[in-house]
Design goal:
By secondary structure, this protein is an alpha+beta fold. The protein has five helices and two strands; from the N terminus they run βαααααβ.
């Protein structure tokens, strides 16, 4: 079975939103800055509720913030 990974555009979207800091986003969605760091680094997949809160913070549909893609294989 092919491995899949949740990917996101959080970092890019923060900069498109007046260079929003990780701390500002964290406060908006009710998590710590460390959680935002882990999300941006692909080390943590958010709960469905958190994914929706982040999407709402940017005013975008869930699919414009997150995607579920095949993991790239190292060669």
């Amino acid at each position: 079975m092919e491995k899949r990974q949740v990917r996101n555009n959080i970092r890019k979207l923060r900069f498109q939103n007046n260079e929003m800091t990780q701390e500002q986003l964290a406060e908006k969605v009710g998590v710590t800055r460390q959680t935002i760091i882990a999300l941006e680094g692909g080390k943590y997949a958010p709960s469905l509720e958190l994914a929706f809160r982040i999407s709402l913070a940017f005013g975008l549909p869930l699919t414009e913030v997150f995607s579920y893609e095949a993991e790239e294989k190292s060669t």
